[in-house]
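Why do we care about 3D structure at all? Because function follows from shape, and shape follows, mostly, from sequence. That is the central idea of this module. The next example makes it concrete: a single protein chain, its amino acid sequence, and then its structure expressed as C-alpha cells.
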Amino acid sequence: MSEVLSDAARRLAAAGVEGAEGDALALMAHALDIPRHRLRDALAAPLPADAAARFDAAIAARAKRQPVSQIIGHRDFWKHRFIVTRDTLDPRPETETLVAEALRLPWASVLDLGTGSGAILLSLLAERPGTRGLGVDVSPAALAVARRNAEALGITAGLAVSDWFSAVEGRFDLIVSNPPYIAAAEMADLSPEVRLWEPQQALTDQGDGLGAYRAIAAGACAHLAPGGWLAVEIGPTQAGAVTALLAGAGLAEPRVLPDLDGRDRVVVARALPEIGAA
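And the structure:
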C-alpha cells in the first residue's frame, strides 16, 4: 500500500498539486473509511480492491484540482465538521476570525448573509444555546447544504432564499457575512481549486469586489437592533474601502481585525443605540 501512496503522490505533484503527499494520505484514509491516525497500521496490509478503486477515483479527481474537501465531502471548521459540495464555498481557517470576534460581542439573535454551508451561522449558534439565527443565501442549492449541516449538528436555524436583505424581516442584534469580495480582475490569479471548483457567485461580484459591501451597508441599519453589531469578512486590501462604506451608511465605531497571518480580515461596526440608551 505504501507504493500505491507514493505513486499517487507523484501523480498529484505532476498535476501541480501542492502538498501532494498529505493529500494522498487524506484520500487514502477516505478510501479506507478510517481516521487518518489509523493509516499507519492499515499501510501494512494489502489494499482491498474496493478501497483501491475509491482511492484511484479520488486521486484522479484531485489531479483535476478538485479540492480534497469536495472529494471527501466535508471540511472541519471551528469546532465542527461541515458538509461541503460544489454549491458552497469551502470554509477556510481565516473565516474563523469572524466567528471568534462575533462571539466576543453581545447578541441573542444573528443574521448570516450569504450563509453558504452554514458554517458561520451554525458555529455561532452552537456556542450560544438559546439564541436564534437566520441564514440567507441567493442559492437554493447552498441552502440545501446548510440544512443538511444543521440537521447533522442538531442545531435549529432559520434558512431562507434571499438576495441579501430582500426577503429578510425584522431586526437582529448581530449581522455577519463572508460575502463575495474578489474583484473580477483578480479571478484569473486564483488557484484552480478555487477558480474552477467553487461557486463563482460566492467568490466575486463580477465587478470591483465591493458590490456586496455596498448592499450590506445599505440595508444594515434597517435590520440591526439599536446598538447592534455588524461583522464582515474582507479581502486583505479592502479595509479602507469597506470601513468607509459602513461609516457612510451610518454605522459607528468601525474597526479592522487581522487574521492569524496578520492580514486585515474582519471589519466590525455598530448601529447607533437609541437616544438615552447605553
